[in-house]
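Quick entry between incubations.
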Amino acid sequence: MERIELLHTLPQVFQGREPQSQIWLQDVTFQKGQTYLVEANSGTGKSSLCSYIIGYRKDYLGTIRFDGKDIRKNRVSEWTSLRERNLSLLFQELRLFPELTAMENVQIKNGLTGHKNRQEIETWFERLGIADKMSAKVDRMSYGQQQRVAMIRALVQPFDFLLVDEPISHLDDENSAIMGEIMMEEVRKQEAGVIVTSIGKHMSLSYDKTFCL
Amino acid sequence: MMSLVWKLLRQHISIAQLLGFFFANLLGMFIVLLGLQFYNDVKPLFSQEDGFLKPEYLIVSKRISGMSVLSAGDKFGFNDEDVQDITSQPFCKSVGVFTASQYRVVCSMGVNGIARFGTDMFFESVPDRFVDTDLSNWKFDPEEGVIPIVLPRTYLAIYNFGFAQSQSLPKISEGVVGMIDMVVLLRGNGQEQRLKGKVIGFSTRLNTILVPESFIKWSNAKFAPEADLTPNRLIVEVKNPADDAIVKYINKHNLELEDDKLDAGKATYFLRVVTILVMCIGMLISILSFYILMLSIYLLVQKNTEKLRNLLLIGYSPVRVSLPYQILTVGMNGMVLVLSFILLYVVRGYYMDRLWVMFPQMQDGSLMPALCLGCGLFFVVSIVNIVAIHNKVMRIWNRKD
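Done. Structure below.
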């Protein structure tokens, strides 16, 4: 997948309003290989944007296209394959499985494609300072630790675009720097595009373009 | 990896609910299968009764009372109007008439050429379609001169216990009816002819000496061409021998059913009704247990909605996340099927032993119908389960749940 286009898109709930936005009701293109920052105040539809792109919600006006194809027409199998191989999302609400350990949470995703081996995953755990938590259930971990697990899970798959929704809201600067580093290593390796959203505090990366939502 | 998915999705599984389903379904399935199997095993006992007439055939004659004996003979016969009237009754499928021989018949019988006894007698025939036997044996060819005959079973008893005993003759069983020598002398219309008779069987339900229709036609034409052929008895094929309307009609028109031939038919009919009733109860239990299972699975999916949704969002297909629940249900259905077969086998062995004691002539039937029904139910229920679970997961996909 080379590009994501938003053509005059607007969440249905915003209908009738004229939001001052560089994304809603505009024509925007995200290119593979580029790094984007979407800055937003809360309630401006940041998570909605991620949900639309991942195919979880369809309550928007206008059109979203992947490589020119309207994603409303995607079949179930196409979405499954996109989520498996082309699009990865670090959810703001993380969506980890509290019944599983940190490692199992990553493996359940990695198992779909076998993209990373166990050693590579363990290295990430170590670099992010949660190696001792690999066998701990995630509901026993702090939110900041869970965010790191969710990031690892987002990286253990092939992707053309990586969406990270407020990835560092509960991390200190040091850990967010490491997370940014690991993320960009993988993104470069896969030559993927990245869309980072944030309210206020954001990962310090060299962004190709910044949008204000 | 599937084990991780299973580790997630088995959360909230209620063992009590699944056990409830399991035993309810086992009971239902077992009752359905046992009902069918028992019906199949026991049915031949009723239908073996008479190989020559189906249970749906009734034999109707006019009632003879003291008064009618004094009046004219032809009153006992059925004219065309009577036959038409019976044919038009709703309980009636078709009507045939008994045609009697109109000439003199003298018959002598013996076994293996030893001592004979002779008697005057008569023949009757019914249309061939009413005779429930291999029709290739049920033919008369004047060239061959052999008449196939069906005797009332009582004749056999009379011979064995009355005649044979007093004359020191060998007793004969039904299996060796071929040993009976029968020479038949037909006389009438100034002619006489000697023919061979061949007893091909005995009937409990026919109170007459039955010969093929073709023979009666040929012989009446030859020995009594001018005789009046008004039938005295009718054979009526009915839809349901236990129908009240039959008895009402018979009484209203002063007719008579020949003894209690309805019994076998009635018994088979009641057997069928009881079987259907039992199977319906089994089916009902099965359906209710199926409901328990579906509710249980729905509840499970509902409780695990968030997990299922997250799996779908990280790239699992609906087919893949449905699979564990589908395997669970199909596996349970399969276990129920196997267990009910085992139960059926054991219970059938038990009742068959008892039945053999009572009815040694009973044949060992097949388990096939019950096997087929069981497998059929298994497939139908499993397919419904699979589809329902998939639909439920699709509702999560479509954010309807």
